[in-house]
Write a structure and sequence with these properties.
With 282 residues, the protein is an all-alpha fold. It has one domain. Helix 1 packs antiparallel against helix 9 and helix 4 runs antiparallel to helix 11. The two termini are 24 Å apart. The mean pLDDT is 85.
């Protein structure tokens, strides 16, 4: 029960980071916002880890995988922050929920796992859900929707790499290294788009990093008490605070077709997660 409470708390907290990013995107470049999300997360996580978990931190056994993991999450964040600067947070997150389906598609290649007919069918149905949300040919297709799908693609690869690292590296070390990779890469390119934030914008950027930091720490703590496969379905809870915040602060709401697409994508994703759990259990 403790694991579930911690996990749900994380998914409730992370949409606040997204809401701040969307709010700031009206005055700051989305890439600069992405950089700040990483910079302030590392700034806050680093002392926390060395104060409370210093003895648990050992150097990675797979530094290349840690680099790849950091890169995929960084690109996922860039895509997502760009998408929510143009479309609603709920629609962007709905399209990003293709991540478990992407993981299933890539599992035979990257993890040498066998994917049965029922999981392939769930993947196809999930992508039909994406088409319902986007409705190409019926509504104007924009780059933001494509970026939201790109978020799910990058995050799907990120999940696969995380599986590979789970058996060798500490989750705390993985969190720190992921943040450092994003901070370094972001710091190299952010001067190109830099806009001087106001004092209040600096406050929001720091608060965004705080929400990201607390959310990911809660996720890590939840994994101490339960396996990732058991907690995976709770990730979809994120859509509810996302919809509420989007409606309350930005007057954004999913239309009927987007809701139908959301249900299709979530149902297929939950089925894939359930099948993977049952196969591993056997």
């Amino acid at each position: 029960m403790k694991a579930i409470i911690l996990n749900i708390s994380a998914w409730i907290m992370l949409p606040f980071m997204d809401a701040i990013a969307k709010y700031l995107s009206s005055s700051l470049p989305f890439f600069q916002i992405t950089w700040a999300r990483y910079f302030f997360t590392v700034f806050l996580v680093f002392p926390f880890m060395f104060l409370f978990f210093k003895n648990q931190i050992k150097w990675s056994e797979n530094p290349k995988l840690q680099l790849y993991r950091g890169l995929t999450l960084f690109f996922a964040n860039i895509c997502f922050f760009y998408s929510i600067s143009i479309i609603s947070m709920a629609k962007a997150l709905t399209l990003a929920f293709v991540a478990p389906l992407i993981t299933t598609v890539l599992s035979p290649i990257m993890l040498d796992e066998k994917v049965g007919f029922r999981r392939w069918l769930a993947v196809i149905i999930g992508f039909l859900g994406v088409l319902i949300v986007i409705r190409p040919g019926y509504i104007e297709f924009n780059l933001a929707s494509l970026a939201a799908v790109g978020t799910g693609c990058f995050y799907g690869v990120y999940l696969i790499i995380t599986r590979k690292l789970h058996s060798t590296d500490s989750p705390l070390l993985t969190l720190l290294l992921t943040g450092i990779v994003g901070t370094i890469i972001g710091s190299v390119f952010v001067p190109v788009v830099w806009v001087d934030p106001t004092l209040i914008e600096w406050f929001w950027l720091i608060l965004m990093g705080l929400f990201a930091c607390m959310g990911h720490i809660l996720l890590i703590y939840s994994l101490k008490y339960a396996h990732a496969s058991k907690l995976a379905p709770f990730g979809y809870i994120e859509i509810f605070p996302n919809i509420i915040l989007g409606y309350y602060f930005f007057n954004d709401f999913l239309d009927l077709w987007s809701f139908i697409g959301l249900i299709v994508i979530i149902t297929s994703g939950l089925y894939v997660i359930r099948r993977e759990y049952l196969i591993k259990k056997q």
